[in-house]
Design a protein that fits this description.
The structure is a homodimer. Chain A is an alpha/beta fold. Chain A has 11 helices and 8 strands. Helix content of chain A is 41%, strand content 14%. In chain A, α8 links the parallel β7 and β8.
């Protein structure tokens, strides 16, 4: 049975795509089958895997604009790793979708039509809270929020959580926040430590609320700044293929481990 | 006579807002009067200056939705430095604007209605090529493109330049690209140097074309990674107020100098 995880943050450049690519690769290395969905019209996740657009093959645009089944868009990119690629047409999808009454639920319906058979679906989203992101939130089981521990991280988080709550209340009752993942973390800075502490306190204080984040954790695993993570995609590789001994590889492997432990009976 | 400069890049987190804030502050320190326009519904530039939303005062939302004059939205934030603040309503503006035939030209008309009287207008844009960005491109005289020298910088740039060309051809004939500004530059990395070289070669090769970027420069000034730049806004300060001796202050001062030299007769 598939677990669908959305990687969401409306703030730009916080590590969503880097996380989608390398967490998926780490889960596959741990023996899970994973499909990645590139919901960003800028298509970076698709480019990370060197995906060449095949105009004969259905893509997420066809899912959103023509009710094609999500499962029919998948292309294999590695052992146990599949990709539902983005195309620039996705930018037009938002305008087309806006016309439909069920515009927030197209992806949800596509999944129901033909459920994916992999263990995980990992969605990479654009830096906005528009229709593509809302469609993702409406179909996901859980959310991972990458956060760069800088000024405004908490502000952006508060706004994001409001949106998640609205989706959970009106479109997707099962939706929960699995966790917060600190990315591009610079261990030496005061700012980083202060923001991490602020965020941890926020979630501690929310433990008894009836919200989709009441059980959200701040992942113990943090992804440290590591130039190897920025270099890997320019070679068309995951961090594990590019530099298995790097901090980047280490951090994403630990994250995958911590995530899988969430599903083991205690 | 005002020079309107748009800070544009659809890629997230490359330093647009940090550049809008600190370049504006540096120009003001050099004796120029500057107004900053926050075109991002996430309103980070407004938050950088600690701007509290005043519901009695006109904002960019009113400019776009009710044809209020841009010049009537300005609030002073420092000596010679004014801000046209964003509000979350701006997210709704894109949907409202979509209905109008002149949806790309509302900001242009607002400027024509009542031209700003400052030396510079600096526009901060969201990470997208949607209506807010197109409106900005349609009113700007010139563009500065912040670029993080990572994989996909050149790809994103190519797509951005296509959009700029379309706007210049159909909506704003005077539009030019002033320059490329490398941000978050890490001097030690091979990746950074390779991307900078690739981008410089691209512009060298375009020198004789009839494009809006034929005379674009890659700024000599690069903005190095400097945690002070991330810390300053959390104290509600510009980099010059926060740490005038930092690399961040140094780099943005040099940039302002280099930019002002572009306007001096040779
Ligand atoms: N831990 C890290 N250390 C160093 N560089 C990183 C790290 N994580 C990501 N990067 C680099 O930083 C840039 C931004 O990361 P990424 O594209 O993953 O963010 P994003 O949230 O997906 O951005 P967008 O909002 O534009 O979709 C990329 O060039 C990426 O390679
Ligand atoms: N040269 C730098 N060194 C270190 N940190 C920086 C630098 N420039 C910007 N930052 C920090 O990196 C983060 C992203 O920068 P910024 O918000 O300016 O980018 P942006 O392009 O405006 O992002 P968005 O696409 O979300 O609008 C911010 O937390 C900022 O403080
Ligand atoms: Mg991304
Ligand atoms: Mg910004």
């Amino acid at each position: 049975i598939v677990t669908a995880i959305a990687i969401i943050n409306q703030k730009g450049g916080v590590g969503k795509t880097t996380t989608a690519a390398n967490l998926s690769a780490a889960l596959a290395a741990a023996g899970k089958s994973v499909c990645m969905a590139d919901l960003d019209p800028q298509g970076h996740l698709s480019l990370y895997f060197g995906h060449e657009v095949d105009h004969n093959h259905a893509t997420l645009y066809d899912v959103l604009a023509d009710d094609v089944a999500f499962a029919d868009t998948l292309v294999p990119v590695r052992d146990k790793l599949f990709l539902s690629p983005s195309t620039t047409d996705l930018a037009a999808a938002e305008t087309i979708l806006a016309e439909r009454d069920d515009r927030n639920l197209i992806l949800q319906k596509s999944f129901a039509l033909k459920p994916p058979t992999q263990d995980f679906v990992i969605f990479d989203c654009p830096p906005s809270l528009g229709l593509l992101t809302i469609n993702t939130l409406s179909v996901a089981d859980e959310i991972i929020i990458p956060l760069q521990p800088h000024f405004l991280a908490l502000q952006g988080l508060a706004k994001l959580l409001k949106t998640i709550e609205l989706v959970q209340q009106h479109l997707n009752p099962k939706l929960i926040v699995r966790g917060i993942l600190f990315c591009m973390y610079e261990t030496v800075t005061r700012l980083g430590r202060d923001v991490v502490e602020e965020v941890r306190d926020f979630f501690e204080a929310s433990r008894n609320d009836d919200t989709p984040w009441a059980k959200a954790r701040v992942f113990q695993s943090v992804i440290r700044r590591n130039i190897r993570l920025a270099e890997a995609p320019s070679h068309g590789k995951t961090i594990f293929e590019y530099d298995a001994k790097s901090n980047g590889a280490n951090d994403y492997a630990l994250l995958a481990n911590e995530l899988l432990n969430c599903y083991r009976p205690t």
